[in-house]
Every structure is written in structure tokens, then in C-alpha cells.
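Shipment paperwork, digital attachment
Item: protein structure file
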Amino acid sequence: MAMKLLILSDVHSNLAALEAVLRAEPSFDRVLFLGDAVDYGPDPVACLDRLADLEPVWVRGNHDNAVATGADCGCAAAFRRLSRASREFTRSVLRPDQLHLLRTLPVERTVSVGGQDFYLTHASPADHLFEYVSPAADPQRWARAMEAAPDRCRVILVGHTHRPYLRPFRDKTAVNPGSVGQPRDHDPRASYAVWEDGHISLKRVSYDVASTVRRLEETGQPDEVVRALAVVLLRGGLP
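Attachment content:
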């Protein structure tokens, strides 16, 4: 039987980007979501409701954790100020049930779909919420992190870096689908992955970035925060 999985990560309250992905992929059997539904973007309530409607296999990201618990997000230094400012807005608008959801999501999961075992976590199998690992930037450290995934899982799914990759690792495949809502690889299009009958592909789709910027302007956050977040969205990362 044919089986299709939609693999998403790091929506970051960007409803326009999420809806663009769902329009591009109107049919699928299941969604695997690797965390960070909220923070940075203007539509945390709507994004959480939309994701919940998809009934995904879901793990908690570092920003989900920070919003729900008040803990530090542990994000990259260049984004810390933006995260703190947007987190105040996010916590002010989320419903209690949404905060409870984010607080109680697991930080790692395994799931079997179509005869394949998948491992899901946000940052890395060695540090579920905070570790930034990249096969390009530090292949040895990345390999050590991947070794922490369960042996039976032949597909390792991580997010967090906002930069997509698809890499073999021994007899496994490691996949980062990139970020739906805030790409940082200098391509502003929403990034995601699809697993279909054993084949994994990385995909991009354009969305109305200007509409997300306009929504940010309506949130009441400081002008300098909105301007900085707009630059990241428009350029696909920091200058």
C-alpha cells in the first residue's frame, strides 16, 4: 500500500508559510512534526490549531519549551533578543490548553509507519532540545550525535538548525527538513520533506512573505524587533 509522510519542523508561528506547504502537499497519510511550532512569528494560536488538526506525531522544540515553561530557549546568540521579545507576545496570546500541549509534548519519539521505523527529535538524538549539529559544519560531532538514535530506527529526523539536509549515516538516513516558517539557509521559501514509499525528498515552496511581515507589524512588538524578524524572513536568514 502506498504511504506518504509530510515531515515538518520549525513553523515558528508563520501561518502563511504553513498553509503554503499544505497547499503544495494536499494529500498525505500522516504528518511528522519535529517541534518549534511557536515563537518569532505572528500567528501562534492559529498555527497550533492548524497543526493540531493534522493530528501529527509531534515532539517539543526548544522554543515550544521556553514559551510553555518559562525556561531559556538556548537559541543561537544572534537570535536570543528576538526570541525573548517574541516570546512575551506569544505567551500573552496562547490559550491555557495550548500552553499545556507544548509543556507536555515528548522530546523524542519513535514511530513505525509503512514498515519503517522513524526516530523524531528536535535538536539531536544526543541533546533533544538545544544542540546545534550539522554534517557540513562539524561532521564528527554530528556523527556522534546521530549514534544516540535507537539502532532499530533507520530514519533519523531532526530540525532546529533551520537548514535542510539529507545524509546517509551508516545503514540509516538522517534528515533535517529545514524550517517551514523561518528558513536560515538564505532561501526564504518554506522548507520541508516528504517520505513516500521509502523515498525521501527535500522540498521548497514560495509563500507570501509580505503578508507575514504585515501580520508581525500588527502584533504590537517593538519596531526594531519586527524589522529584524522581517529581514530574516525576507532574506532567509541574517544578512
